Amino acid sequence: MSFQATGVNMRNVLFGAGQRPLRRQLAITLSIIFGISILVSMLLFNLLFGVQARNLIDQRSQFFMDAMLAVRSYTSKSVNPIIAPLNEGPGVFRPEAVPSYSAQTVFAGLKAKPEYQNYSYREAALNPTNLRDKADSFETSIINQFRDDSSLKVVSGDRSTPLGSVHFVARPIKVGKESCLTCHSTPERAPASQLRAYGDTSGFGWSLNEIVGTQIVTVPQQAVLEAKDRSLAATAVLLAVIFVVVAVITNLVLGQLILRPMRKISLKADEASVTPATVTFEERNRSDEIGRLAKSFERMKQSLAISMQMLKDRQGR
Length: 317
Ligand code: HEC
Known about the structure:
Strands 1-4-3-2 form a 4-stranded antiparallel β-sheet, with helices on both faces. Helix content is 62%, strand content 11%. It is an alpha+beta fold. The chain has helices at residues 2-15, 22-88, 99-111, 137-148, 181-184, 192-198, 222-274, 289-316; strands spanning 120-125, 155-161, 164-174, 211-220. It contains 8 helices and 4 strands; from the N terminus they run αααβαββααβαα. It folds into 2 domains: 45-220, Beta-Lactamase (2-Layer Sandwich), CATH 3.30.450; 223-317, Helix Hairpins, CATH 1.10.287. The two termini are 55 Å apart. Bound molecules: heme C.
């Protein structure tokens, strides 16, 4: 019983059933359905676009890191063997032989373009040869994570910087080859040209298999997140346009299918209440609900005509 009562209340509140013109009842119902649908869709789209933005940022970071690794490997394999002998000689040190130098120089070329301005690539070390590569406190904490857990191959995450929110990916740099120690173990072993260029106080004392630093790329997130918000806004506008189109079409259909024939039947019923003999409900030939309504009126009209005739006959007697 109480269910029935609330059912009726709900209907009145939600759809204005029976309280307003049909058009308005339909408009209210559609607005509520579309409102809820758009809200739920936007929540889901927000999640979906968020995941896509995340993937895009991950892909960019991965590509960036791989490109830098490729530069490093090209330098060690192809460039270093040619230049290393020159560094042994009395001339000036040629840093082009050093993978770290070439990767950072290639990156500097990229960064000169405005679209890469907020990207960064660092080869940070606790005890660097080039003091520019000295790890800051954030990089130091990452290097220490790699030093504490040798199975850890990648650390990644988001952080906010003065340039906005960035995604970073870091990999450990390990002294993997004995050849590294030529330049990074003791000043005595290092080429004299290197000492002249970098001094003999920093970048030494590394040992084989030690993790001495981290390669770290950072990719700005703002542009991707802004693009995501724009897609979300465009989707909302699109859904709203679809809503308006569907609402207009539904309204036209309602008018054509129900309201117009109903109005006609209602006018004829008024007429029939006075002069039943002159009225015909043509709609009774339809096989839908309107047809059924017209048939009912037709039967009522005939009964009325008979009653009126009987009344007349009685008065005539
Ligand atoms: C010919 C000497 C030489 C060899 C061999 C060499 N390095 Fe270096 N390394 C340098 C110099 C010089 C720099 C500084 C380059 C610059 O100015 O960017 C450097 C820089 C680095 C850096 C960046 C941090 C810093 O110290 O400035 C890392 C990391 C590094 N080297 C690791 C290695 C590893 C790992 C190997 C072995 C695979 C290696 N190096 C072999 C000379 C060398």
